[in-house]
Design a protein that fits this description.
transmembrane, elongated, 3 helices, about 110 residues, single chain, transmembrane helix
Length: about 110
């Protein structure tokens, strides 16, 4: 039986079981994702939000904006999404931990089959 974690921040973080990180190549793929995902997110943001989905406006923006500026925009968007996901996971963890604790007034000898 697996011991329940005491704290959300004490949980172990691994890349095992995630299909995006092939076994043995985790660090290489992590570096690729750190470079590509923020840039792609920044390009999508510039195209839809700043360029209003118009290719001519987007092309004029892409001439003026550098790779680094686009990457920084995407990085900030992804950082906010990751922080929100971590907060959601922490709240879910605390709710599950509270629901798994003993209920007041419950029979101590009762066990589920």
């Amino acid at each position: 039986m697996k011991k329940q974690q005491q704290s959300f921040s004490q949980q172990e973080v691994t890349f095992k079981g995630i299909g995006l990180f092939p076994e043995g190549l985790e660090k290489i793929f992590l570096a690729i994702y750190i470079i590509l995902l923020p840039y792609i997110t920044g390009v999508i943001f510039l195209f839809f939000y700043v360029g209003s989905g118009d290719t001519e406006t987007f092309m004029s923006l892409s001439k003026d904006s550098s790779f680094m500026l686009t990457w920084i925009i995407g990085y900030e968007i992804l950082a906010v999404l990751i922080i929100l996901y971590i907060i959601k996971s922490a709240i879910k963890f605390s709710i599950n931990k509270k629901s798994s604790t003993k209920v007041r007034g419950a029979d101590e000898n009762f066990r589920r089959p």
